[in-house]
């Protein structure tokens, strides 16, 4: 079997990146509002994360240190549901995860699951 490669136009060129200040959920919120999706690392090793189906995910055992972070995801928005602030997060596990591939993760709860510990976006 041969692999055929087709040359296509470059859609964008990355010229660098910006790191959101570690642990700063307000800076992450401002980044999402002004730039768009932000790449983040989270603590996703809990069974409750893998089993998430609906609502605002709240796992008190989640860590927020760099050594706790186990999974990369994309923060695409934020909001409040029934008085609970959340981050709207796109996972990479396909549409069978959560709600069509998304999870609402707790926001403004001491950087729960390390959502703002390692956050960055590209400069294009």
UniProtKB/TrEMBL annotation:
CDD domains: Peptidase_C1A
UniProt xrefs under SUPFAM superfamilies: Cysteine proteinases
Any coiled-coil regions, as ranges: none
Molecular functions per Gene Ontology: cysteine-type peptidase activity
UniProt entry tagged with the keyword Transit peptide: no
The keyword Disulfide bond is annotated on this UniProt entry: yes
PROSITE patterns: THIOL_PROTEASE_ASN, THIOL_PROTEASE_HIS
Superkingdom of the source species: Eukaryota
A Pfam family of this chain: Peptidase_C1
GO BP annotations listed: proteolysis
Residues of the Peptidase C1A papain C-terminal domain: 1-123
Keyword terms of this UniProt record: Disulfide bond
UniProt similarity note: Belongs to the peptidase C1 family.
Official protein name in the record: Cathepsin L
Species this chain originates from: Trichonephila inaurata madagascariensis
